Amino acid sequence: MAPYHHIKTFEDPTSLLNAIYFVIIIVFATVIILLLSKYNMKRVIYALLIFSIFLTLYIAIDAFLLGFIAKSTVSIFLHAISIMIAIFLTVILFKFKRWYIIDFVGIILAVTIGTLFGISLIPIVSIVLLLLLAIYDYISVYKTKHMITLADDLIDYNLPLLLVIPKDKNFSMADYKLKENRNKNAKKDRKALIIGLGDLIIPTILIVSSNVYVGLLPSIGAIIGGVIGLFFLLRDINNSKPKAGLPFLNGGVILGFLITLFLISIIQ
């Protein structure tokens, strides 16, 4: 985690206001994308998303390389390499719209963003953030349903904003429509399972935060809790209705973290 410390997203990791700011940013970004989509400004959305993906890839690769070689004499050279690799991955993503390329880049994005915010927030602030976003996810999927609309719009861009788990090795993103897949009731007719990238990013924040500010064991406990939450999320996988993932996943990592802390306090 050390290479990321110089690019923290918040100066004061203890401020609860950080969680509020985070939620406001997410809501604002969602509204902007929905408005642009409503007025058919897809090229603007695509350009913004591509730039954001490139920038995140650059941050991830740059921090990774500098973690091995931190000498100032070669740092400029490493920055240049990071830019070239980020451009290469972005071009590959643009030209070859394969589900495995989308998932590969998506995982890099999720780990990077989750790490950046994880090192920038202490666990208690991370927990508040996860609770707020779990509530927001529930409302946006089951009440306002605008998150479903957003997912329908984003899948058409074939970008790593949604992770794709296909049922068939010959699965093609070009022929895939999220709305059509969701309307298929029979298990055999559904082509793929779609998971929002946020369902990976948000739980990762607490996992990283607990490792940085508390220790490895609570972080492992959070991971185990997240896996259990994922199990409950996917147990009714044949149901074609959209599900809010964060209540399950965030709840899992929070409980895993707190239970592990409790057990450690008893043992010590």
Q: Give a count of the beta strands, DSSP E runs of length 2 or more.
A: 2
Q: What is the chain-wise order of helices and strands?
A: HHHHHHEHEHHH
Strand content: under 5%
- The structure class reads mainly alpha
| Distance separating the two termini | 27 Å
Helix coverage percent: 55-70%
The biggest sheet amounts to: 2 strands, antiparallel
Shape: globular
Supply Rg: 19 Å
What's the number of helices? 10
List low-pLDDT spans.
Answer: none
Widest sheet: strand order?
A: 1-2
Please tell me the overall pLDDT: 85
What does this structure look like?
This protein has a domain at 97-267. It is built from ten helices and two strands, in the order ααααααβαβααα. It has helices spanning 17-38, 42-68, 72-95, 99-118, 123-143, 146-155, 178-182, 198-213, 216-234, 246-267, and strands at residues 162-166, 192-196. Helix 1 crosses helix 6 (146-155), helix 5 (123-143) runs antiparallel to helix 10 and helix 8 (198-213) packs antiparallel against helix 9. 35% of the residues are buried. One of its GO terms (molecular function) is aspartic endopeptidase activity, intramembrane cleaving. This is Presenilin.
